TrEMBL record:
Protein name: Pickpocket
Major place of residence: membrane
Keywords: Ion channel, Ion transport, Membrane, Sodium, Sodium channel, Sodium transport, Transmembrane, Transmembrane helix, Transport
Membrane topology of the entry: Multi-pass membrane protein
Molecular function GO terms recorded: ligand-gated sodium channel activity
GO annotation, cellular component aspect: plasma membrane
TM region positions: 63-84, 485-507
Pfam families: ASC
Xref: Gene3D superfamilies: Acid-sensing ion channels like domains, YojJ-like
Native species: Anopheles melas
């Protein structure tokens, strides 16, 4: 039976095992200090490499650290100023370098009202304490005893009274011409209810495109155009322009050309002898120029046209538009509304004027329970206000007009795309019958006295072919803001996008990649140590005999199953390979020397015994025999 060499567990195996685990964990995890130092030495941000250089003294590193903090604070201060400017005033209004041709600009909508709000002939026929008298008081704003017992506020009745008691457009307009072409006034003008009563308007949008609900009560008592359908309505909006190519047979009409001959000419008749009540102290007309998509406010903003005069009005279109980039800016900052953001209930096309009219109608309806006859009405059965409601609705209107009032107000921003028309009026005395004149619209006028007391000749035209718009754009866009911030960071810190990428790399990607790399190295070292351990075991066992199945023999380096895992942990200690090899070599030399000693002892013993006998094994034996030696 081969000798047994017991394997004793060393007392420091557990300690080596714990140190081995800690060393593996420390190699797998890149320390924060080491990572920060390497970032400071390799980053493109100025000054940090001096902080991470260990060869510098602590005083030098502290100097650069404090300097870095001061420079960073300065950059943050200036960047905050740029950000405040970007947020507080992001919009700038500039003159568009690309001019707009007049063919793409609609001719202004012209609304004309006689200063006489009610014909004397109709007023004298009205009886006392009747519905007509109540409507008359509302139109002329007359004070007195109000009898509302017979007034139910139906729009149909009020509309019929207005149409029968005011001057129709056929009597107001005596002659019309547009772009050198004589026109029938009834074909190009339409009646409209305004705050001055029944007026006449030219070149406005059709009701189909102006109002959202076709069944809602309209301020237009008749349909646009004549029964022959000579002119075809098309859609036009300030933001999108004409929906299709305009022509001479469509409306709203475009500006045909510059000059007085390409504009609108008309003869107006005031019929001064039929005046009953007026909102002014004179005889004549009120005229206003507005966008084709708006309902005008005559009382507050119209101009006067006196009778007995010839008037030339030069129109200058004022176009406001906006760049697409400001859509992302809040309404409170850009101070305008795009068409897609409008939330009007009555009008289809947004404008500030339309918004204010709709807001005024809603406030009066909520507080007074009625609506003035010229304001938007969503429903046919909406009650029309009478003079008995004057105190209520006048208070509401005054509160809306008073800008300092915040309890009742209409916060209507202008449209981002709007067009307005600035008139330049020149007037001279009208002379008829004294000498020959070129104007054909006055051919039928022969009475000089009637002309001076009742008529007015008006020319409306433009003088330029191109007009520039005022465009709202970004004062400081995101690109400009980013450029300013990048310039300040580069000036103070040398910071760039690459510097930001470096920060992300050292915070996330580098620790992860270092951990994965260390894990692969540890696995490789483990495999190499296992291979060396296997080779060492084979060298220990090459000279030993194979143990039998029945005898439990323990060899050095061959632990039992109970000690297998402990021996495995022991072989994982640093330097274990060298210890095993050295111990195996000494044991091998020891066994070899013992075998040589045993072999020499056997040989010497046999030789000594043979010498004592004095006979060699090859000689013939005589006498006594020695079988053991034989």
């Amino acid at each position: 039976m081969a000798p047994v060499f017991p394997l004793h567990r060393l007392p420091h195996v557990a300690f080596y095992k714990e140190q081995r685990i800690k060393a593996a964990i420390s190699r797998e995890r890149v320390s924060f200090t080491e990572n920060l130092r390497e970032y400071c030495l390799n980053t493109t941000i100025h000054g940090l490499k001096y902080i991470g250089t260990v060869s510098l003294t602590l005083c030098e590193r502290a100097y650069f650290f404090l300097t870095f903090l001061v420079v960073t604070a300065c950059s943050i201060y200036f960047i905050s100023n740029v950000y405040i400017k970007w947020q507080s005033s992001p919009i700038i209004i500039g003159l568009n370098p690309i001019a707009t041709h007049i063919r793409n600009i609609p001719f202004p909508a012209v609304t004309i009202c006689n200063m006489n709000q009610l014909r004397r002939e109709a007023a004298e026929r009205i009886e006392q304490n009747t519905l007509e008298q109540t409507v008359l008081q509302s139109i002329c704003l007359l004070d007195g005893d109000f009898n509302d017992t017979q007034f139910d506020g139906k729009w149909s009745e009020v509309k019929q009274m207005l149409l029968s008691a005011t001057q129709p457009c056929s009597a107001l307009l005596k002659g019309c011409r547009y772009a050198k072409q004589p026109e029938r006034c009834s074909e190009i003008f339409q009646s409209i209810f305004t705050d001055e009563g029944l007026c006449c308007t030219f070149n406005t949008l059709d009701t189909v495109y102006m109002f959202r609900n076709a069944t809602a009560p309209s301020n237009f008592p008749t349909e646009m155009g004549s029964s022959s359908g000579r002119f075809r309505p098309i859609l036009w909006t300030p933001e999108n322009g004409y929906a299709e190519e305009p022509s001479n047979a469509s409306y709203p009409r475009f500006i045909a050309g510059p000059g007085v001959t390409m504009g609108l000419a008309m003869v107006l008749d005031a019929n001064a002898s039929d005046y009953f009540c007026s909102s002014t102290s004179s005889v004549g007309f009120k005229i206003i120029f507005h966008s084709p998509s708006e309902t005008p406010k005559i009382t507050d903003y119209a101009q006067y046209i006196p009778v007995g005069t010839e008037n030339r009005i030069i129109i200058t279109p004022k176009i406001n538009d906006a760049a697409h980039q400001i859509r992302k800016v809040a309404q409170a900052q850009r101070q305008c509304v795009f068409a897609s953001e409008a939330n009007l209930s009555y009008y289809s096309v947004y404008s500030r004027n339309n918004c204010e009219l709709e807001c005024e109608a809603k406030l009066i309806l909520e507080n007074c329970g009625c609506v003035l006859y010229y304001l938007p009405k969503l429903y046919e059965d909406t009650k029309i206000c009478s003079r008995a409601n004057a105190r209520c609705y006048e208070q509401i209107r005054s509160s809306i007009a008073f800008s300092a009032n915040t309890s009742i107000s209409c916060s209507c921003l202008p449209g981002c795309f709007e067009i307005s028309y600035v008139p330049d009026l020149t007037t001279t005395e009208l002379q008829v019958g004294r000498f020959d004149i070129r104007e054909t619209l006055l051919d039928h006028v022969k009475d000089e006295v009637y002309a001076k007391e009742n008529l007015a000749l008006v020319y409306i035209f433009v003088k330029d072919t191109y007009y520039r718009s005022f465009t709202k754009g970004e004062l400081v866009g995101f690109t400009d803001f980013l450029s300013n911030v990048g310039g300040l960071l580069g000036l103070f810190l040398g910071f760039s996008i690459i510097s930001l990428i470096e920060v992300i790399y050292f915070v996330t990607l580098r620790p992860y990649c270092a951990k994965r790399k260390q894990q692969r190295i540890n696995q490789k070292e483990h495999n190499v140590e296992a291979n060396h351990l296997t080779a060492a075991r084979n060298e220990l066992l090459w000279f030993g005999s194979k143990p039998s199945n029945t005898t439990a023999i323990q060899f050095l380096g061959r632990p039992t199953d109970a000690d297998r895992y402990d021996a495995h942990d022991y072989h994982l200690q640093a330097g274990r390979n060298a210890m095993v090899k050295e111990f195996a070599t000494k044991l091998k030399h020891l066994a070899h020397s013992r075998l040589q000693q045993a072999n020499g002892w056997v040989r010497n013993t046999f030789r000594s015994r043979r010498t004592q006998l004095g006979h060699g094994f090859d000689q013939e034996r005589t006498g006594t025999s020695y079988p053991f030696y034989d």
